[in-house]
Amino acid sequence: MDKFRTICKGFFQIKNLEHVSRKALTLILIIAIASATVIYYHTDKVTDVSLHRYNMEEKIIKHRKSEHKNSEEKTSKTLEFFAESTPIHTATLSKASPRAERATADLKRVKDVCEKYKGTEYDEAPANVGHWHSSVDDEHKLIYYYIPKTGCTLWKAIFGILTNQSNETDAANITPYDIHFRMKYTNLYGLTPEERNRKLSSYFVFVVVRHPFERLVSGYMNKLGEPGEPYFQNTYGAPIIEKYRFGATPEEIKSGKPTFSEFINYLTDPEMVRTYNIDSHWAQYYKLSHPCFVRFDYIVRFEHMKEDTQHILELKNLTNLVEFTYKEPKTSNEKLKEYMQQLTINQIYKLYEAYKFDFELFGYDFDIRSYI
Questions:
Q1: Mean pLDDT of all residues in 245-260
Q2: 3-class SS at 206?
Q3: 141 and 287 assigned to the same domain
């Protein structure tokens, strides 16, 4: 009993324990042991930050999967309604075909996401920036919003053939130089608002998209990495190295070849983007194609480039005019992971935030674990 009194006296700092009963002392000791146990396990749990964060991400992922499943169920119920109001489905697509469902779901998603972000920084009318990234074929009533590094070389070649700027019938036989420098493409920029809106409402309008991170890797490799291009290395690469590489030598700056990590630091630095602008090869999709202000009839997936391109040619009865030999892209999933693993988790999260709207608009998932 004297030992109990001594423990309680030290733990609770009680001075007159002689008047405390045995039951009271026992209860006090039980409470003390229970409190110590709770504190121990609580401390042990919260100190393991990595496990705690992983568990939270697991819960978030499960919740998003549940939301995605519910969204898919809702989408399937609305397919028939949207099929009637979307031009693409009034032609040759069967309402039951996978391509029809995917095309309808893509268009509905864009509409829903634009509504979700209405009134925010993303709700920016294109009147001030124009429609530079559009190609118009008046004869066949086609409008293509082109985004660099999403297969635009193929579709520009097709437009070159359709507008009688080449004697070739296979788009793959036209050289990149002819496609990007010799051929001329009519866009919507110089038109009056009335004429532009007339064409947008009556022509077949489409855009090609791919996974935003995969596109950035492709743009980096092609313009700043290997092989790279002098214009991009001088205009963007040199300033990026100068700012983000500690102790960079004049030779390193002059090379204009930043690391991928330095390139991402530039893309996620608002001040640098404002100072050196942002090139179309890595500008966000919504800034180039204005999906919240342009009525698209079809969203071509880079992952389904061959079949979607063939489908549009068939839909517009152009297969007798144009052929194309499709070449698989050089930027694979393995290449994407190789470059993303050069980044810190914080860099990846910041990059996602910079391109989050594109991810949501076109239904690309973001899972941090696939890059680390």
A1: 96
A2: strand
A3: yes
